[in-house]
Amino acid sequence: MTAPTSDSNDVPFLEVLNGTPYSLPSEAAPALVEMTKRLRNVRRGLDRAIEQARRMGLIAELDRAHAVFTVFESNSLEFEGPDLAGTLDAIESTEGQAVIRSLNANLLPEVLRRDPEAFAAIGLEMARVVANRYVRAGNRGMSQSDLRSLHSIVVKGSWYAGQYRSFDAAIADSLHKPFPTYAIPQAMGDYAAWSQKVFSQDLAILRAAIGHAWFTHVHPFQDGNGRVARLTTNVMLGQDGLPPAIVKARSQRGQYLAALSHSDEGGDILPLTGLFLDTVERYIGELRKPRVFQKMFNEIVQRRGDSYFEWYRSCVRDFLERLGTELALSNLTLHPIDEVTREVFNQLRRDAARDAGSPAVLMAIVTDDNGQELALYQTRTATPPSRTLQRPEDEEAVPAIRFALRNAPYSLSPWRRARATEVHGLQRVWVQPDRPVRLFIDGLEGQTQQSVMTGVPELADRIARAFAGEFMVPREYHGSSRWMSRVNGGPG
Q1: CATH number, domain at 263?
Q2: Is the Cα torsion angle 58, 72, 214, 8 positive or negative in sign?
Q3: Is residue 8 part of a domain?
Q4: Are 291 and 366 in contact (CB under 8 A)?
Q5: For residues 415 and 326, what is the distance between their CA atoms, to the nearest angstrom?
Q6: Full residue range of the structural domain in which residue 187 is found
Q7: Among 267, 293, 319, where does a domain finish?
Q8: How much helix, strand and coil, in percent to the nearest 5, is found in the chain?
Q9: pLDDT tens per residue across span 265-313
Q10: Entry pTM
């Protein structure tokens, strides 16, 4: 097989795959070229954004906020630890600072006895600080000792802390069977040796995705594998001069689990690569608007409410419940996946005029008995409908809901935007908080506006007609049924 190469600098993409369980076919070449271009833009944008934040005197505050988000989101993916405000309180408490400054993991069990949630936050922050030491050590990857040290901090107080699994294990709601115990030391030795190799900077995101997927595939520890894997991912990114990949627990859990399923069952690491690339681009977008990001962080920590956001979220939940009921009449099943958080909601409204950097939230997947799937995802506002002239448009704007179909294998995203002709003329939908709540349906024939009560049956009928034969899923993909049951459970 000929290695896919970049059309600009002839980057040997398969160099980073040597010695790993993964391979990429020639069909992956377009996605790899896209990855390279985006990563080069990331590096250019990162330098400018850091310099701007430094000139404004905000770099320390931004580093603090991102550190707290890193700990909070990683714990939340496992349903561990306190909320964001509680995470900040625990880390910056006198007790927490004493543990973190001394890097004395032996102090952690005492914290555990008094406050298990604070223990989860302080322990992971201490492990993050230790991981950053590995970053500053240069591009040397991770040794087995490094990995066990991080694990011993993350699960300090457990009998298995810092030790590879001593008996075989299974991952709940997953078809993947982790490595047997006798194979773990050799597998982790191969992993550590590979991680210490030096590769082209154009391979940084791919390297981090391979490292993450490989680590979780082996599943070397009894517990804490997900948190250690995310730490090692950020070590690899940091060693390559990139910011951490912070996967959002509430708005990206589904995408994350789907990407891990693709890598576990099909060896396709590109969806995870694409997700990490998205998170790094988002990080830079936050650096470009440091005052906005700082304000958002402070508002969340202070638990300040946003009545319009809460109203919108309630309306969307009601919309999905009604849509699921209507779709069931056509033997279709709606599976809620991720939710827009206040942070993402505001970002989607701010980024209405930009394509780059706007997150897409996989809100639900509709399935039928034949294995066909249609995704609903929330993205930037994109010309939101106006319900009244009495309020400024930026205050009433809501994210657009679009439709997506399964992408071909070996793509950076497992989903592609559906063409209107594939989903019975549907283009976009908006759930607009109002009295009554309105549903705007944007189709090839124009835009209609109805109450949710009358509009949802029409939308469900059009989706059912699309399932009747207007699209088909590609072959050789790993269906969502393999990972959707894990959305409400931790990744490991």
Answers
A1: 1.10.3290.10
A2: negative
A3: no
A4: no
A5: 24
A6: 13-293
A7: 293
A8: 55, 10, 35
A9: 778 999 999 999 999 999 998 888 888 788 778 777 776 556 788 889 8
A10: 0.86
